[in-house]
Structure formats: C-alpha cells, structure tokens
C-alpha cells in the first residue's frame, strides 16, 4: 500500500495541526500505571470483594456483641441452668461447669478482647509510625540508635517480654495493653521505616527540601500521606496478632481474671472438661478464630487494593 | 519460504475498551529489518506482545490475524506454542537487567536455551562460549562465569541478544532494545543486531520511539499513531519526505545535533556569575564521583552538562543545588530550584496541582496565583484540582517546571528533565524551558545525556568524563570543533547516521 493511501485511510481522532502530543488524550488512555489514591474508589473496590465484606461483617458482629450484650439481656455471670449441658434450644451453646449460659459468656467475652487488642494496636501503630518516620527520614545516628534498640527488644522472645511486663506491673487489662503495645511498636516501626526509605528517594521530597520546607513538614505532610496505606495495612495485621496475644495471655492467667468471660480465660478454665463437654472450650476458641481470621481477611484485602 | 511475520488487519483491545491497535497490516520478509515507530500509548508494545502470544489475559484480538514464520500462534495448542516460542521467535526487551535471572550465572542461563534444544555437555558449553563471542565478548569464559549484576547495561543487553540468537529464530522482536543505554553503547548494540540479521537471515521487528535510530537501522519503517499505521515505506523516504502530517510533525520534533539552535531572544548578561564553583569534589568512600570541578554560570546563561551514565554529571548538578554534601566551594546568587527526570516521582502523588503550586509560591515568595502560574507553563485551569496520577507525563513535567518558577530564582538545575518524555512532548517542554528562561532571565544548569537536546538549548557546554570536567566551551565550538578526544568520541557516536543528507529536513 502506498504512503498516500495509508495517510488517507488513517482517520486519526485529532486535527492535523495538533497531530503531535495529544497530551490530554494520553492522559485518558495511555497512563496505565496510575497510582492508587486512597479515598477515591478504594472503598468501592473493597466492597466488591466478598472476603472483605465477610471479614467486616464478622468483626462488626463481635463489636456489636461487645457493646450490646447487657441491653440484650444476656447474663454471663449467673447460673442459668444445670451445669455442663450440651447445646439445646434452651441454651444454644450449652452451659459451663457452673451452669452459666455459654452463649451469654461468648457474646460478653468479646468486650475485653475488643478493649485490649485495638487499643494496644493503636498505641503501637502510632508510636511505631512516628519512630519509623524519624528513623527512615533522618537516617544516620538516629536511625542506627533506634534500629539497634529494636534489635535488643527483638532478642527477647516476644511472649516472654510481654509476660515480663505484665507480671511486673500486675494483672490488669491496662498492663496488657501497654505490654502488647511495647512488643509491637518496633515491628510497626521497621515496616514504616522501609516504606519511608522508598519515598525519601523520590524527587518530590528533594523538591520540598529545595523549596525550603522544614523537616517536620516533609515528614508529616509530604511523606506520611504516602506511607499511610502501609501504616493502615500494618496496623490491621498487628490487630489480628494483638487479639491472638491478648487471648494467649488471658489463657495463661495474665490478663483478665475470673469470673470474666474473656475468651482466652474461658478456654483455659474449661479445657479440663473438653472430653465430655467440648462446647465449653470450643465456642470461645471458635470466637477467637473467627475474629482473627476476619481481621486478617480485611488486612489482606486492604493490602491488595492499596499496594498494586 | 514464508514471511517472518504477517499481520493482517489486526485489531486488539483491552477488555471492552476502545482498541489500542486498529486494523494493523504489515509483512516482514526473512532477512528484512522493519522498524515500528510510535509514541507512548500508540500500541507498539501491544504489537510486540501479541506476536509471541504474550498478551495479558484481559487483551483480546478483536479481528484480523497474525502469522509467525507461517504459523498462527493463536491457533496452536500449548505444546506447539512452546515449540514456536523456543524455535521461531526471540524477544529482546528494553531492560536487560530484568530479562536476566539475577541468581544465575550468564553461562548457565544461556545454556538453558541450548538445553531446550537438546544439546548437552561439552557441546553445550562450546556453543555457549561461541555465542558469547559472536555478540562481541572478547573473553567469553569470564563473562559466562559472571552474574548479570556484574555486567554493565550494554553487556547485559548483549547477553540477552546472545540468548535470542541461540534460538536461531525466524523472527527477532526488539522492543526499545537500546533505550536507557549510553549513545556509544547503543551504537554498538545496534551494529551487532544488524550484523546478526545478515548472518542469520532472520526477520527483525524493531520497535522504538526513536525515529532517527530506526531509520538508520531498518529497511522499512511503519509509523504507528493511536493504534493505526499512518505511514509506511522505505526508511529513507519516510524520514526525508514524510507524507502524513503526523510523521512530518514527528520528524520536525526530533532535536538535531547537527543544526545550530534557534537564535536567542535574551542573550546572557555580562557581570557577576550566578553560580561560582571551585574545587567541587564528591566522594563515596574511596571513589570520587566528582573530582575537583571548577565552574561558572553567568546570569541568564544556559549551561549544558553532558556525559555518559556514571560520569558524575547528575551528582555535580545535585551538589550545586545543595542536595548532597560535598567538598569544595559553591557560591550561588539566589535560591536554586530543580526539575527532575521522572515526572512520576517529582510530584507528591497525594497533592493536587493547585496545592503543590500554592505551597511553592508561598515558600519561594512568588506573587502569582496557582492559576496564573499554571497558565504560564501552558496548563489549563481545569487541571488545577487534579492529582498527579490523573495527568500525562508532559503535564506532570509542566507542573514540576511551574513549581521551580514559583518565585524569584537565580538558577534552575534541569536533571535529564526531558529524557522520560516522548519526542513530541520533549520538543514542547524544551520550547517552554527556553521561553521561561528568556522571560524570567534565569540561568539553567541543563544536565543531559542527549547531546541533541543540549544543542537546542545551551549557550555553553561542559563535558563530564569519569568525574572530571574534561572540556568546557561555547556550545557552537563544542559541537563543531570539539578538542578533547572524549568529546570527539561521544559526538561521533551520537551524530545520527542517517541514510543520506539532511537537507530535506532542515
């Protein structure tokens, strides 16, 4: 085919004078590698993912249980019938060795768990993000000092460190919160630091420096918004672990104390009946599992949607 | 013998969106080199993927057909497709560093190709070494024992080409094979490809945004715009007498190293220099990236800094801008600003254009509104509330330039400011930089590996080689009568070896 023929055949979607660089056209179609921007469309994309919706539904269920069990008339402390009864229409999840309704205890047990884990995670995420930002942006001596002290904290097996704190400061939910927060802070800080290192190498940070911005502006207004997706995902993953750890500590008797319906504690107290009354330990254990798995589902979906 | 490649009225779309390749027909004979030229978004890489049936799952062939060495890859079952890929098609991509397995020595990696062909033991080893020698390695044994990261970019690309060669393909597809390589290395790689084509008799599909390069190394050229082939023909004819308006504009937009730049409206001002550098040295451990550089840039002067990658030109620019600690003395009048290479990384992705510009105006003491500033760099007010991710590459670079010009400034360091852009966008950004320079009277330190771009803008030019400023002079003198042997060498490598004289173009 001749060149002229081709030229005639081609019906380009733009004027010949503007033939070059239809920049606005390119903006629509060609820029495939568009960064995912939090807030815009992220919520919509999340809600289209079934595992995310299931995770949120389960977490919401437990949150409502934690808030509303009293109003709904559940009593986890008073004997409601004969001890160690199997699940029936009267007691949907059976009764424990003192005749208390297991359904009431499992629903009420959501409260201590959802008090400790989110609070500890929030503290650890806030502290870890601040330290990670500082270490990643300033590098040098500050970075070395922080990272080496985190290494020292890491050197203790985590659960032992938490045991140490909670046994030194008494068994209360608050000590549990602080112990878990201290244990998780370095983990969050490391993750945030590595995200900060990636961002700091980008030229918008250098442009800000050339513009005469102060370090605090660069760290909190330039870099933080760009590592926020990482922070949110990391925080959600930590939340799942925190639920796990707090249940574990209660199981060991270092968290909630009897007669609390805390799941970890209930599993611990009822595990001796497991051969003839499996429901006493199985349902609170199942509750822990559903909550941890759901939070992990949320974390996975958040990561997939925000980091691609 | 069947043609190496036949595309017949090929239309490809991603999902339900408008097709990215529309009714593309072309034919490549065995032993022929065909160059496909297009800018980003033209669909040229989709063509490269389609040929080996490597298109992503969402892509579909809407109509038309495709034949490689006589067989249709889309009609084959898995086994036959694999057979076709291992025996008839070889691909070479832009980033050789990513095409090679970083954990495998070069020799073993290359050996895998022969292993697939059932060649074993001593014979395989001999073939590996022979192939490495053919792509221009003097010491094949040494190279075979290396890991990819121990090789330079040009050497890595030679290894990838060696792997393509080992296939003895009927069709060799090269997608931007030399983009990102230094001019001298690029010339070497292309010569190699040409030589191998003659030896093997393979059909070559060379895909690039670089028209002069394609014209110099291909028999025929096709110009792809918005998924359609707007012009096709003999390489020389297309470059010298382009018939389609798009091709004409494309040819005109290519900066020319052999043409003097347009006259300046505002020549540099005599008097105290804006930049005064004495004995600047930047060390990384024992290695000096920049060694003892003296430099002055006058008010309103454009100083071009050229050199190959690793020569220290970027480090020098960053040291002068104050972004890295260094030894030696740097005195500046006014505050320096910088325009960076990558438009994607140089804007905060979470901040709208308006906020970015407003902040820059405030910090740099400007007296304009963001809308006025945007207008100066050719951005419409409708773009002000967009995020960088919603802009094209050229638009992002305009925002970055506007940010640098937000207040009264003395020096702007442009570090490869147009290297990541399409040639037509590059031409417009260069015009913008020149216009702003005249109207604002600032000085530029214009760092670039692209000599033609520097020629278009610079009053004076400095040549960096291994951390030292080996030659400084007026642009005219550097480009027409270079003194230093290194300057002569890079000019020789860069001067576009076109099919014939340049009169038709200028």
| Straight-line distance between termini of chain A | 44 Å
N-end to C-end Cα span of chain B: 42 Å
The biggest sheet of chain B amounts to: 6 strands, mixed
Query: Compute the gyration radius of chain A: what is it?
Result: 27 Å
Oligomer: heterodimer
Mean pLDDT of chain A comes to 84
How large, in whole angstroms, is the Cα Rg of chain B? 25 Å
Low-confidence stretches of chain B: 499-506
List the secondary-structure elements of chain A in sequence, H or E. HHHHHHHHHHHH
Overall outline of chain B: globular
What distinguishing features does this structure have?
heterodimer, A: 308 residues, mainly alpha, 12 helices, elongated, disordered N terminus, B: 506 residues, alpha/beta, globular
Structure description:
- The complex is a heterodimer of chains A (308) and B (506).
- Chain A is mainly alpha-helical and 308 residues long.
- Helix content of chain A is 69%, strand content 0%.
- Chain A is built from twelve helices and no strands.
- Chain A has helices at 3-9, 23-29, 42-47, 50-68, 102-138, 140-155, 158-168, 173-200, 203-210, 215-251, 263-270, 279-306.
- In chain A, helix 11 packs antiparallel against helix 12.
- Chain A is elongated.
- Chain A starts with a helix and ends with a helix.
- The model of chain A is unreliable at 1-38 (pLDDT under 50).
- Chain B is of the alpha/beta class.
- In chain B, 37% of the residues lie in helices and 24% in strands.
- Chain B is built from 19 helices and 18 strands.
- In chain B, the strands form four sheets. Chain B has a six-stranded mixed β-sheet with strand order 5-6-7-3-8-9, with helices on both faces. Chain B has a six-stranded mixed β-sheet with strand order 14-15-16-12-17-18, sandwiched between helices.
- In chain B, strand 17 (460-465) and strand 18 (468-474) form a beta hairpin.
- The two termini of chain B are 42 Å apart.
- The model of chain B is unreliable at 499-506 (pLDDT under 50).
- The interface between A and B is large, with 41 and 63 residues.
